[in-house]
From TrEMBL:
NCBIfam families linked to this entry: psaOeuk
The UniProt record lists the keyword Membrane: yes
InterPro entries for this protein: PSI_PsaO
Name of this protein: Photosystem I subunit O
Membrane spanning stretches: 119-141
Record key words, sorted: Membrane, Signal, Transmembrane, Transmembrane helix
Pfam families hit by this protein: PsaO_TMD
Signal sequence segment: 1-17
Length: 150
């Protein structure tokens, strides 16, 4: 039988603090936080009340923070498929071995592949290479278009 303990947590620090508000969540007034580490009083602000700065909208990231560029994805995929399709492993390519192992494992579909199957080696190797090509492609393409390397 497991028991759960719930306790009130207190903040212990050096210096004094003035947190005398009975309920900081229900109180609309600002609570000053004063500590021995901070030279001036810091006011706790509610970020939900600061809507005026962004015209009433809540913005956490840039609009296009992921900066998805189909050129990077396309060139990264081609940049990985081309070298991984070279028959360098006993006359077979990494892509061919990976797709062949998918077909072999799908032949006995309801049962998963065993841990000793070559499928896992080809899966991890192929996807690691793809991830590296896409990552370095993103760094190189965006670095060149935004003049990081000058």
């Amino acid at each position: 039988m497991a028991t759960t303990l719930a306790t009130l947590s207190t903040v212990v620090g050096l210096g004094s603090s003035s947190l005398s508000c009975p309920s900081p969540i229900s109180s609309p007034r600002r609570v000053p936080l004063i500590s021995g580490f901070v030279k001036s009083a810091v006011t706790a602000r509610n970020p939900l009340r600061q809507t005026g700065a962004n015209g009433g909208k809540f913005m956490c990231f840039e609009r296009d923070w992921l900066r998805t560029d189909l050129n990077v994805i396309g060139f990264g995929l081609i940049g990985w498929l081309a070298p991984s399709s070279i028959p360098a492993i006993n006359g077979k390519s990494l892509t061919g071995l990976f797709f062949e192992s998918i077909g072999t494992e799908l032949a006995h579909f309801p049962t998963p592949p065993p841990l000793t199957s070559q499928f896992w080696l080809w899966l991890i190797t192929w996807h690691l290479g793809l991830f590296l090509c896409l990552t370095f492609g993103q760094i190189g393409f965006k670095g060149r278009t935004e003049d990081y390397f000058n």
